[in-house]
Amino acid sequence: MLRLRGGGELVIPFPDIEKEDAVKVHEFDPRAPDYRRIRKGMYYAAYCYNPACAAGRKADCVAVPAGFGIFNLQKCLDKVFCPACHQKVKPYSVGWHYCDYQVSTQKPGAEAKKGKWHQAGDKDHRFDNKEAGEAEFVVAIIEVVPYQEGGKEKLNTVAKEQPNQTPIEENKEADQEEHKSSHNPQPAPRKAKKKHCTIL
Ligand SMILES: [Zn+2]
Question: How deeply is 129 buried, as exposed, middle or buried, from its count of CB atoms within 10 A (0-12, 13-18, 19+)?
Fold first, then answer.
Protein backbone atom coordinates (compact mmCIF):
# COMPACT_ATOMS: atom_id res chain seq x y z
CA MET A 1 0.00 0.00 0.00
CA LEU A 2 2.83 2.39 0.82
CA ARG A 3 5.34 3.54 -1.71
CA LEU A 4 8.34 5.81 -1.69
CA ARG A 5 8.46 8.80 -3.96
CA GLY A 6 11.62 10.27 -5.43
CA GLY A 7 12.07 12.66 -2.52
CA GLY A 8 11.88 9.82 0.02
CA GLU A 9 8.31 10.71 1.02
CA LEU A 10 5.94 7.90 1.89
CA VAL A 11 2.91 8.12 -0.34
CA ILE A 12 -0.39 6.34 0.09
CA PRO A 13 -2.93 5.99 -2.68
CA PHE A 14 -6.46 6.33 -1.28
CA PRO A 15 -9.83 7.82 -2.24
CA ASP A 16 -9.52 11.60 -2.25
CA ILE A 17 -10.62 12.23 1.33
CA GLU A 18 -10.03 15.97 0.81
CA LYS A 19 -13.37 15.96 -1.03
CA GLU A 20 -15.46 16.17 2.10
CA ASP A 21 -18.74 16.34 0.19
CA ALA A 22 -18.16 12.85 -1.19
CA VAL A 23 -19.37 11.29 2.07
CA LYS A 24 -22.78 9.68 1.50
CA VAL A 25 -25.29 8.61 4.09
CA HIS A 26 -26.60 5.03 3.91
CA GLU A 27 -29.24 3.20 5.87
CA PHE A 28 -28.22 0.12 7.85
CA ASP A 29 -29.20 -3.29 6.59
CA PRO A 30 -30.35 -5.63 9.39
CA ARG A 31 -29.92 -8.62 7.05
CA ALA A 32 -26.26 -7.91 6.25
CA PRO A 33 -23.70 -10.40 7.61
CA ASP A 34 -22.03 -9.91 11.01
CA TYR A 35 -18.70 -9.08 9.39
CA ARG A 36 -20.23 -5.81 8.24
CA ARG A 37 -21.28 -4.76 11.73
CA ILE A 38 -19.95 -1.36 12.84
CA ARG A 39 -19.77 0.54 16.11
CA LYS A 40 -19.65 4.22 16.95
CA GLY A 41 -16.64 5.99 15.48
CA MET A 42 -14.70 5.30 12.31
CA TYR A 43 -14.57 2.07 10.37
CA TYR A 44 -12.62 0.77 7.40
CA ALA A 45 -14.29 -0.85 4.40
CA ALA A 46 -12.25 -3.61 2.77
CA TYR A 47 -12.59 -6.80 0.77
CA CYS A 48 -11.48 -10.13 2.19
CA TYR A 49 -10.10 -12.70 -0.27
CA ASN A 50 -9.14 -15.47 2.17
CA PRO A 51 -10.73 -18.66 0.78
CA ALA A 52 -10.96 -20.07 4.33
CA CYS A 53 -13.08 -17.11 5.52
CA ALA A 54 -16.87 -16.74 5.45
CA ALA A 55 -16.44 -13.30 3.84
CA GLY A 56 -13.36 -14.13 1.76
CA ARG A 57 -15.00 -17.17 0.14
CA LYS A 58 -17.34 -14.74 -1.58
CA ALA A 59 -14.64 -12.03 -1.96
CA ASP A 60 -17.09 -10.01 0.11
CA CYS A 61 -16.88 -6.52 1.59
CA VAL A 62 -16.16 -6.36 5.33
CA ALA A 63 -16.40 -3.45 7.79
CA VAL A 64 -13.61 -3.13 10.34
CA PRO A 65 -14.55 -0.92 13.31
CA ALA A 66 -11.72 1.43 14.35
CA GLY A 67 -13.57 3.54 16.94
CA PHE A 68 -12.19 6.85 18.20
CA GLY A 69 -8.72 8.37 18.11
CA ILE A 70 -6.24 9.96 15.74
CA PHE A 71 -5.70 7.69 12.75
CA ASN A 72 -2.58 8.29 10.69
CA LEU A 73 -3.56 6.33 7.59
CA GLN A 74 0.06 5.84 6.54
CA LYS A 75 0.45 3.60 9.58
CA CYS A 76 -3.09 2.43 10.24
CA LEU A 77 -4.01 1.13 6.78
CA ASP A 78 -1.38 -1.56 7.15
CA LYS A 79 -2.90 -2.86 10.39
CA VAL A 80 -6.47 -3.65 9.42
CA PHE A 81 -7.77 -7.19 9.90
CA CYS A 82 -10.86 -8.97 8.63
CA PRO A 83 -13.43 -9.28 11.44
CA ALA A 84 -14.31 -12.82 10.28
CA CYS A 85 -10.88 -14.46 9.77
CA HIS A 86 -8.46 -11.92 11.32
CA GLN A 87 -6.25 -11.95 8.24
CA LYS A 88 -4.87 -8.63 7.02
CA VAL A 89 -7.15 -6.80 4.58
CA LYS A 90 -6.51 -3.72 2.47
CA PRO A 91 -9.02 -0.94 3.16
CA TYR A 92 -10.43 0.77 0.11
CA SER A 93 -12.48 3.36 1.99
CA VAL A 94 -13.55 4.68 5.38
CA GLY A 95 -16.86 5.50 7.02
CA TRP A 96 -18.21 6.93 10.26
CA HIS A 97 -21.13 6.36 12.60
CA TYR A 98 -22.32 8.60 15.43
CA CYS A 99 -19.13 10.64 15.90
CA ASP A 100 -17.38 13.87 14.93
CA TYR A 101 -14.36 13.69 12.63
CA GLN A 102 -11.78 15.90 10.97
CA VAL A 103 -9.56 15.04 8.00
CA SER A 104 -6.04 16.50 7.67
CA THR A 105 -4.19 15.89 4.44
CA GLN A 106 -1.28 16.81 2.26
CA LYS A 107 -0.85 15.73 -1.34
CA PRO A 108 2.66 15.47 -2.84
CA GLY A 109 3.96 18.93 -3.66
CA ALA A 110 0.84 20.63 -2.26
CA GLU A 111 0.02 22.61 0.87
CA ALA A 112 -1.14 20.81 4.00
CA LYS A 113 -4.90 21.02 4.52
CA LYS A 114 -7.02 20.76 7.64
CA GLY A 115 -10.65 20.04 6.91
CA LYS A 116 -13.69 21.17 8.86
CA TRP A 117 -15.09 19.10 11.70
CA HIS A 118 -17.90 16.96 10.36
CA GLN A 119 -20.60 15.16 12.24
CA ALA A 120 -21.78 11.65 11.43
CA GLY A 121 -25.20 10.89 12.84
CA ASP A 122 -27.02 7.68 13.59
CA LYS A 123 -26.56 6.21 10.09
CA ASP A 124 -23.72 4.87 7.98
CA HIS A 125 -21.71 7.83 6.64
CA ARG A 126 -19.37 6.38 4.06
CA PHE A 127 -16.88 7.84 1.67
CA ASP A 128 -18.05 7.48 -1.92
CA ASN A 129 -14.93 6.40 -3.82
CA LYS A 130 -16.49 6.90 -7.25
CA GLU A 131 -17.42 10.49 -6.54
CA ALA A 132 -14.13 11.29 -4.77
CA GLY A 133 -11.74 9.62 -7.19
CA GLU A 134 -8.25 8.36 -6.30
CA ALA A 135 -5.51 10.55 -4.87
CA GLU A 136 -2.06 10.24 -3.35
CA PHE A 137 -1.17 11.58 0.07
CA VAL A 138 2.01 12.22 1.99
CA VAL A 139 -0.17 13.08 5.00
CA ALA A 140 -3.60 11.59 5.69
CA ILE A 141 -4.77 11.83 9.28
CA ILE A 142 -8.33 11.45 10.54
CA GLU A 143 -9.27 12.50 14.05
CA VAL A 144 -12.44 10.91 15.40
CA VAL A 145 -14.14 11.89 18.67
CA PRO A 146 -17.46 10.83 20.22
CA TYR A 147 -20.57 12.55 18.90
CA GLN A 148 -21.03 15.96 20.50
CA GLU A 149 -24.34 17.74 20.60
CA GLY A 150 -24.13 20.62 18.15
CA GLY A 151 -20.87 19.34 16.64
CA LYS A 152 -17.23 19.61 17.70
CA GLU A 153 -16.72 22.91 15.89
CA LYS A 154 -19.25 24.56 18.17
CA LEU A 155 -17.82 22.96 21.31
CA ASN A 156 -14.32 24.23 20.44
CA THR A 157 -15.55 27.79 20.35
CA VAL A 158 -16.99 27.53 23.84
CA ALA A 159 -14.02 25.69 25.31
CA LYS A 160 -11.58 28.44 24.29
CA GLU A 161 -13.43 30.91 26.52
CA GLN A 162 -12.94 28.77 29.60
CA PRO A 163 -9.62 29.33 31.41
CA ASN A 164 -9.55 25.91 33.12
CA GLN A 165 -10.23 23.73 30.15
CA THR A 166 -9.87 19.99 30.64
CA PRO A 167 -7.17 18.64 28.34
CA ILE A 168 -8.57 16.64 25.43
CA GLU A 169 -6.36 13.65 26.26
CA GLU A 170 -8.13 13.13 29.59
CA ASN A 171 -11.53 13.25 28.01
CA LYS A 172 -10.62 10.62 25.52
CA GLU A 173 -10.37 7.82 28.06
CA ALA A 174 -13.64 8.71 29.63
CA ASP A 175 -15.27 8.72 26.20
CA GLN A 176 -13.96 5.29 25.41
CA GLU A 177 -15.31 3.91 28.63
CA GLU A 178 -18.65 5.37 27.86
CA HIS A 179 -18.45 3.77 24.47
CA LYS A 180 -17.66 0.36 25.92
CA SER A 181 -20.40 0.58 28.48
CA SER A 182 -22.93 1.12 25.73
CA HIS A 183 -22.39 -2.55 24.91
CA ASN A 184 -24.07 -3.43 28.19
CA PRO A 185 -27.81 -3.74 28.01
CA GLN A 186 -28.52 -0.33 29.49
CA PRO A 187 -31.21 1.68 27.72
CA ALA A 188 -33.33 -0.59 25.58
CA PRO A 189 -33.73 1.77 22.60
CA ARG A 190 -29.99 2.13 22.08
CA LYS A 191 -29.51 -1.64 22.10
CA ALA A 192 -32.20 -2.07 19.51
CA LYS A 193 -30.44 0.46 17.28
CA LYS A 194 -27.10 -1.31 17.59
CA LYS A 195 -28.57 -4.49 16.19
CA HIS A 196 -29.06 -2.76 12.89
CA CYS A 197 -25.60 -1.27 12.67
CA THR A 198 -24.67 -3.45 9.76
CA ILE A 199 -23.69 -1.70 6.58
CA LEU A 200 -25.01 -2.64 3.16
ZN1 LIG B 1 -11.80 -12.73 6.14
Answer: middle
